[in-house]
TrEMBL record, chains A, B, C, D:
A Gene Ontology BP annotation from the UniProt entry: L-threonine catabolic process
One Pfam short name: Beta_elim_lyase
Family affiliation: Belongs to the threonine aldolase family.
Positions of the Aromatic amino acid beta-eliminating lyase/threonine aldolase domain: 9-298
Catalysed reactions, semicolon-separated: L-allo-threonine = acetaldehyde + glycine; L-threonine = acetaldehyde + glycine
Descriptive protein name: L-threonine aldolase
MF-aspect GO terms: threonine aldolase activity
Coiled-coil region(s): none
Cofactor: pyridoxal 5'-phosphate
C-alpha cells in the first residue's frame, strides 16, 4: 500500500509549516532591537495591511491562537450571564475545551443545528425565543464559522439573512474566521463583502492554518466593542512581548496576496482529493467540498488499513466518518497517494476493529 | 369559572411560605445575641440533626439557595476545564442562568437524555466515551436531580446502576436534592439509602421548597471534597453573618419528622390533582406523577382560559404542556378548584392565542 | 468580675437578632402564597420604600449579604482587567475573602491610606496616577465605606471632594453602606445628601447589621450600570426564590423610621461606652467614635481577663487594640457592665499571654 | 550627544530578537509536516532537554508568554479563595495586569517587603500569620522571582531559608524564572540547586528574554500539581497548534549551553554598564547589579536629555529612578555609547520637565 509521500499528511492544516513569504518576514524582523509589546513598526504595518484587506478602518489585535482569539472576542461582547448562539459543530463548542466559558467567566453556548454545519436564521431565532427569563443566560451574540468545521462556506446571501435576524433580535455577530481565506477563495468574494458588510462586529482572522507559525488577528469592525481590549489581551496572557515576531509574518502573508494563493491552493487540493475519492465504491461524501476539507465515510476496515499504512486523519466514533484536510502546501502527489491508498484498501477484505475517534482539532 | 382558592396557586412550591415548625424556630432563635457566621448553637444543632437524618458523619454547610448550593458543590469537584454530565432537563442546565459555569469559572455541562427526566447509565457512558482528548472538557462528575425536574423519582436500583457506572468511569456523584424530601416520601426509603449508600459524594439538600424561608444544606458525604469549603462559601457571598436565622429553621423542619410530613402532603396533593385531571377528555399526562408535580398537556384555549381566571402556572412553548406543582401547604380545596376550573374550561370552545412559555423555575 | 449581661456581647453588630418591626413583617408576609423570585407585592413595596428614603427613582435589587452586594455591584462596574481604589481597611479588602476578585473574575483592589479609615482625594489621585499602561489593571471605580470599618464617618464635604476627584478622573463611585444608617444618624443628614447627591453611582445599603435576619439592598442611582443586573444576581446565587421573606422585613425596617431609630440607638450606646472607657487609666481611644463602634487599646493582661470573664470582642495582633461594637438592641446595662469589668480588670496586675487576633468581621 | 548605536536600546531585554541558534532550529523545524499540538518530535526533544538541564524527571508544558506561564502555574496550586505570598515588586503583582487573579478566578496576591526586591522568610511568615480565618484568602503558595525584578539574585542560602519556612507553613513554592538563566550565570550554580533542590514545586522557565521569539516552559518538579494541566493550557488559549515552532527554538537555546552563554553575556554587559555609570557624579546605584539590569537614579534633566537623544528606558515617577537592561545581544558599543551620553548629559545644566513613568515590563 502507498505510504504517505514524505512526511505530508491529510490530517490537519495545522500539520503544515510556515510559508516562505511569512518566514522571510520573520527573518527580516529579527534585525536589530525593536520596541516591545506591539509598539514596533512591523506591528503597525501589519495592522495597516489588515485594514487594507478589509477596505475599512478597524481595530486589530494580534493574539497567539484561535481559542484565545475567539474566547477574547466573545468575552468582549458577553458578560458571564450572557450566551452565544452557535452551530453545534462550531469549533468554540467542540474543540476549545471550554475556552469561551473560561474567558467570559461562564457565558453559555446555545447550540443550534443546520445542514452542512451552517447555522440558519430560523435556528437562531428559535434559540433566542426559547427563553426570555432571568433563569437562563441571555443571548448576546451569534457566532458563525467561515469556512465551517465541515468545510462548507456561508454564501453572502446566507450571511445577509443571518445579519437581518441578528440585528432584529439585537444580537452581535462574531465570525470565527480561522479559515476565512479558504472561504474567500471559494466564494471569489472581496473580504469586506462577507465580513463588515455582512454585519460582522468582530472577526477572528486566522493566520496559523494558512501559513503562519502562530497568531490570529482579532479584528473589530465595531470598534466600540474593542474598549480596553488591549488590557483584556494582556491580562489573559495574550500580549506578546516580542510582538514583531507575531505581526511581521502577517505582513508576509498579506503582501502580494500570498494568503489568497495559499488558500486557493489548499482548496484546489481538496477538490482534487474529492474528485479522486468520490467515484470509488464504498466511499460516500458527507458534506459539500467548498473549502479545504473533505468528509467521507469509509468502511471501518479501510480506515484501519489506511492508519496501518501510516496515514493520519481523524474519524468519527462508530460512524465510519473521516475528515481529510488539505493545506497551503499539500502536494498533488500527497493527494494522489492517498487516493491510491484508499483504492487499494477498498480492494482488500479483512475485517478490522473499530477506529478510535477523537477531536477534529489536531 | 372557579378562581384560585384564596391566594393559593399551583405554579410552584416556591409560592408557599414558611411552615409553622420552621417559623417557631426562627422566632426562638431571635432571643438574645448569638455568635455570628455559624459558630452558634443553633447551627451546631442543625448540622447534628442532618447527620442524624442521614445516619452518618458528614460535613454540612448552609447556603442561601439552590443555585448557590449546586454551583458551589460542583465547583468543589470540578476545575474550569472539567465537565459535569447531567440530564438535559436538569435544573443546573435549565434554570440557574449559568451558575455552575460561573462558580467554577467555566466548567461545561454535558447533556444526556433519558426517559422521564432521568439520566441513564448508558447516557452517562456515551457522553463520557464521546471524547477523551484535551480539546474538550474532561468529565469529572455526574449530577442527578432527585426528585427530577419533571416530578419523577430515581429508584434505588436506578441509583445503584448509575453509581456503578460512575465509579467505573472515575466520576464523582452530585445530587441536586432540592426536592429530596419528596423523593424519599415517594420511595418510602431511608435517606441514607438513596444518598451516600448510593455513592453520592455531595448532596444539595433542599429546605426552601419544603417549608423554609431561605436556605439549602450542602452535605458532603465524601468529606475530602469539602476541603476549604468554608472559604469557598465565604468568598462566593454564601456565608450568612446571622447564620442562626438560616440554620434554626432547619431544626424546626427536621425535628419530629416535619420535613417528611410536609413532603408527603405535597406528594398526596399531586396524586389528588393527577387523579382529578387525567380522566378529563383533552388532558394527557406527560410524565409519571411520583413526587409533587403534575405535567399534563392541555388545549391552548384551555390554558388561556385558566390563566384568564387567575390561575398561575408554567407552560411549554407551542406544546400545550403545563406544569402544576403542589407544596407542603397546598389545600385539597385548591386542588379541587383547579380540577373544576379545568373541567369548565375544557367545556368551552373559544379559540385562544398561544400561551407564553418561560422558565419552570418560579 | 462582671459577666456579660444575659447573652449580650459587644463583639459585633452581627450578634444582634431581628428587630420587632422587621420580625412582624416577616410574620405578616407568611400569609398565603406569593409569586416567587421577587414579583410579589412585598418586594414591590420595599423597593418603593427605598426610593422614598432616597427621594429619587433608582433600581433596587435585594441580595443575601454584604459580600455579595459589594462584589456584585463592583462587578457591574468593572471588567476583570479593571481595578477598584479603596482604603486599605475597607471591608472588601479585609473581610470578604476575595469576593470582589471572584465575582469580577479578577478585578484588583488598589489600596490607599488615609487617617481614621477614610480614603482621601489625594490618595485616590496618587493611586490613579501611579500607572497608566496596559500592564496594570485600569482603575474604574472608587469604593467608600460609610460608616468606615473603624467607626468613623465621611462628612458631606469629604464626600464632595472625593466626588470631584472621581469625576475628574472618570471613576465611578461605589459606597459600601453596610452601616449607612449609623453614618446618617451620626451626621444628621438626609440619605440623598451623602449618596446620589454626593455622586454615588451604586450603594450597597445594609440591613442585616441594623435589625434584619438577612439581606442587603443594591441600589443603583446610576441605572445605566444596572443593565441586566437581575441576570447577574440570579447566576451568582443571589436571587431568593421566596423573595418576600427577604424584602418584607425591609419594609418593617423602613416604615416609621425604625431603621433610623435603630441606628441612633446603636450610636448612642457607642458614645456611652466611649465615655465610660476613655477616662480609665490604661485605656487609649484609637479612632474617633462617630458611629457604633469603639476602638481602644488595652493592656494585654486586661484583654485576657475580659475574655476569661466571658466577654467576646476582636483584637489586633500584638497591638493591644480592641474593637467594641454596639447594635440596635445593645442595652445600657451591657455597656455599663463592660465598663465596670474593664475597670475591674485594669485594677489587677497578673501578666497575661498575648491575645489571638483575627478578622474584625464576626 | 551620542545617539543609540544602530537600533540597540537598553530599555528591555524584550527589545532583543531571536538568537542564531534558536532561529536555526525554527528554520529546521519548518521542514515538512508535523503532528500538531505538541505530539511532534521537536517538542519531545525539547522536553527531554529541559529534564537534562535540571537533572531530574519533570513535567514540562510550553506556553506562549510569562504572564500565562505564571498565572497557569499558580492556578494549578490555588483555588479562587487562596492566596499567593510574593514580593511587592514581583512581576505577577506589578506587570501582569491581574493575570494571576484572572486565571485563578480571584486568588489574591499578598505582598511582602524585603531589601533588594527579595522576599524574606520573616516577611512570608508575618503575612501567613496575619490572618487565619475564613474571611480572608488562605495562603497556599510563595512565589519567588529569580532573578528579581530589580536585577538581584536569591542565593542558595536564601532559597533554603525560604524553603524551610514554606514547608513548615505548608506552602507550595513557585518560581518565576523569566530570567532564571541570568540568575544561574550570576551564581555559577547548577540549575537543580536553585530549583527543585531548593523545594521549588513549579518553575516558569523563561526563554523569550534570553533569545527566543515566544515561549516559556512551565516545569513541574512536583508532578502531582500538574494533574490535567494540559487541559488547563488548552482551555486558556495556551496550546500552540503548530507547537514545534514554540518548542524547537528551545532546543536551539538549550543545546550546547547557548542559553547560559546568552545569559552570561547579558550579565557581563550589565556589569560593564554599572562600572561605567557609577563613578559619574550625580549617578547613584539603587540596587546591587547581579543579573542583567542596572538601576540608578539620575537628575531629571539628565533623563530628559537622554530621552531626547533617542535613548529609551523606563523611569520611576518623581524619583529620578532609571532601569537599564542588557540582553543576550547587547553590544559593548551600545553600553559605552550610553555611558558617554550620560556623561555628556550630566555636564549640561538646562532644567527639564519630569519624566513620565510607567510599567517596567517593556
Amino acid at each position: 500500500m502507498n505510504a504517505p509521500t514524505d512526511t505530508q499528511q491529510l490530517a490537519s492544516d495545522n500539520y503544515a509549516g510556515i510559508c516562505a513569504e511569512a518566514f522571510a518576514h520573520l527573518e527580516a524582523a529579527n534585525a536589530g532591537h525593536a520596541i516591545a509589546y506591539g509598539d514596533d513598526v512591523w506591528t503597525a504595518r501589519a495592522k495597516a495591511a489588515i485594514e487594507d484587506v478589509f477596505e475599512t478602518a478597524c481595530e486589530v489585535h494580534f493574539v497567539f491562537n484561535g481559542t484565545a482569539a475567539n474566547s477574547l472576542a466573545l468575552s468582549a461582547i458577553c458578560q458571564s450571564y450572557h450566551s452565544v448562539i452557535c452551530h453545534e459543530l462550531a469549533h468554540i463548542e467542540t474543540d476549545e475545551c471550554g475556552g469561551p466559558e473560561f474567558f467570559s467567566n461562564g457565558s453559555k453556548l446555545l447550540l443550534g443545528g443546520g445542514a452542512n454545519g451552517k447555522l440558519t436564521p430560523a435556528a437562531v431565532e428559535a434559540i433566542f425565543r426559547k427563553r426570555s427569563d432571568i433563569h437562563y443566560p441571555k443571548p448576546q451574540a451569534v457566532s458563525l464559522t467561515q469556512a465551517t468545521e465541515v468545510g462548507t462556506v456561508y454564501t453572502p446571501d446566507e450571511l445577509a439573512a443571518l445579519q437581518a435576524t441578528a440585528r432584529r433580535l439585537g444580537l452581535h455577530l462574531h465570525m470565527d474566521g480561522a479559515r476565512l481565506a479558504n472561504a474567500l477563495a471559494s466564494l471569489g468574494a472581496r473580504p469586506k463583502e462577507i465580513t463588515w458588510q455582512a454585519g460582522i462586529d468582530v472577526l477572528c482572522f486566522g493566520g496559523t492554518k494558512n501559513g503562519l507559525a502562530v497568531g490570529e488577528a482579532v479584528v473589530f469592525f465595531n470598534t466600540a466593542l474593542a474598549r480596553d481590549f488591549a488590557y483584556r489581551c494582556k491580562q489573559a496572557g495574550q500580549l506578546a512581548s516580542k510582538m514583531r515576531f507575531v505581526s511581521a509574518p502577517w505582513l508576509g502573508l498579506l503582501d502580494n496576496d500570498t494568503w489568497q494563493r495559499n488558500a486557493a491552493h489548499a482548496n484546489a487540493m481538496a477538490q482534487r482529493l474529492a474528485k479522486g475519492l468520490e467515484p470509488l465504491p464504498g466511499v460516500h461524501r458527507l458534506f459539500p467540498v467548498e473549502a479545504n476539507s473533505v468528509f467521507v465515510s469509509l468502511p471501518e476496515a479501510v480506515i484501519t488499513r489506511l492508519h496501518a499504512a501510516g496515514w493520519r486523519f481523524y474519524t468519527f466514533i462508530g460512524a465510519g466518518g473521516v475528515r481529510l484536510m488539505t493545506s497551503w502546501n499539500t502536494r498533488e502527489e500527497t493527494v494522489d497517494a492517498f487516493i491510491a491508498a484508499t483504492r487499494q484498501a477498498l480492494g482488500e477484505t479483512t475485517p478490522a476493529p473499530a477506529a478510535v475517534a477523537n477531536s477534529l482539532d489536531a
